[in-house]
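Your task:
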Amino acid sequence: MKIYFASGNSHKRVELAQILPAHDVVIPKDEGIAFDPEETEPTFYGNALIKARALYEIVRKPVIADDSGICVDALGGAPGVLSARYGSKPGEPLLDAESRNRLLLAAMREKPNRSCRFVCNMVLYYGPDRFVSVQETIEGTLIEEGRGLGGFGYDPVVFIPELGKTVAELSPEEKNEVSHRGKAARKIAIFLDSLNHEST
């Protein structure tokens, strides 16, 4: 099945395509679709639904959208839904990932509680008022200096104690197995299978 993924992030598209190999995952820019909805909700779920519904209105085909970010306990759950915009000023270009990581680690200086989690809400939208939503996490600890060359975003600064590695030190297969996005996508895949049966 062809699935539209409501994202401009090619890293996320690659991850989702690896997790859902039975489906053809495309993002709007793959087909020349201008897509940049305003994410105005205070929750991952609310923003994922905004993106899913907006792209469905354009393509009228099944759409997957996700909203994800890092939540740090010592910062009251921040950056949260603002993870991609962390440290950026309105009207200015977003900071790159390395700059956001440095800013986050500076905010955590001398804070003893370094627990955090990646959160992903994923929505499968397949008709007006017909959708499912899944939210998953991966628990970790913020280290004091980034490690690893894989992944993207905050992956180098989040250490997974049970694996003894940062997320950026995991292979793509390892990351997809344990990540917030991997867990959510595998649950969405169950609904995709039922949708396939419904259409045949």
